[in-house]
């Protein structure tokens, strides 16, 4: 999985039937030092992730594993909202700390 | 999924039988700031996307999820025409606005 | 799918049993402006594509969708010989024109 | 598979149900000369790999092959802890040697 | 498929059960001009490829197509030892010639 930050939303009304009822987020990938990369994904969201939160993105057929997603044409899905990322015991990211700074 | 702009069409008459009846679009990927990338896809189109429209592209096995596409050798499909892309509440793209400017 | 030009052939006699009977082409990818990229694929060929022709390449599990290819370890297949590529109504490539110039 | 070094951990409490019970490691990819690359993966861990160990990462649907992982939305899994990497009979990496130097 | 040269071996004793009995080779990718790329794969080997040989690598689910490999977590497999690569009728590689020069 990759780490990404929720940046916004994508809306499409004219789409293939299998795309109906999917909430689409624009998420931007984050590198191993916590910086935004010039790389994004439009990912399906089942868990209500909000703008600026860090999330875990599963890609490929993994994006359709969750029950109810099998017949949706998803190649990327938000599978979790990240609480903490620790690298060698140092916190690279803490959701609590990030929210405190807002 | 990735955001792309429809740029043109690809025609192939001599092809494997499973490719019959697929309309092929040349779509060029768009980055997270709304600029064209030097990267494209030849994608199957089921929804009649037109030149210059922004579309959502599903890749990999996701490209064959829609009913009727399962036995086509597609690794990229147009799954929706994009109405709006919003990044932190600002509009990166609006189909209405784009059409007004044509 | 990606656009590629047939450049040559690859021969392998000592191989896994599932690879038997596959004709292998070396195809080089072409960018959205019609130039060769420093990127290639060794692709299975079912349709008899010839050197210098432009072809469509399907990758991933899409490469094994065609009837009879399901149990071959292919991750890239030539699925069509390209007649024309049009970008905003201009011809980026025309097979007829390319042959006339040879 | 790719070679990676375990760098840390990722914790997510609010996630899709299929993600429950997965231990997530942040692993950073290593190049063919043994150097860390600016590229990482958040990978599921079944074997208890520890920080600084070199591991093998399987990606894509391969990440869900192990019994019990089929219905988890994993696109990357630690499938082995590496003992040795030899390139043309020279040791690029030896776990024993690495531990001796700690 | 991609062309790669066998460079060495990888050994892992502590691994997931599905990884048992797989011989792992470190193979380095080769570009369309026959030069080594700074890109490698740890690939399963069923055919006994030796150091310095050029091989064909299948990736993704194609790596598990060969009978007996379906339940192994492989995302890359050596599917053939290459005899010749010809580009526009010139030999880019010949196994016989390579062995004569050793």
Could you characterize the architecture of this molecule?
- The structure is a homopentamer of 102-residue chains.
- With 102 residues, chain A is mainly β.
- The first copy, chain A, contains one helix and eight strands.
- Chains in contact: A-B, A-D, B-C, C-E, D-E.
- At the A-B interface, strand 1, strand 2, strand 3 and strand 4 of A face strand 5, strand 6 and strand 7 of B.
Brief summary:
Chain A has 1 helix and 8 strands; from the N terminus they run ββββββββα.
Principal-axes shape call of chain A: elongated
Question: Which pair has the most extensive contact?
Answer: A-B, 33 and 30 residues
Termini Cα gap of chain A: 27 Å
Low-confidence stretches of chain A: none
Which percent band covers the strand fraction of chain A? over 45%
Strand order within the widest sheet of chain A? 1-3-4-6-5
Q: Which H/E pattern describes the elements of chain A?
A: EEEEEEEEH
Task: Write the topology of this structure.
The structure is a homopentamer of 102-residue chains.
Chain A: E1 2-11, E2 14-15, E3 23-30, E4 36-45, E5 54-59, E6 76-81, E7 84-87, E8 90-94, H1 95-100
Subcellular location (chains A, B, C, D, E): Carboxysome
Organism (chains A, B, C, D, E): Waterburya agarophytonicola KI4
Subunit structure (chains A, B, C, D, E): Homopentamer. Interacts with full-length CcmM.
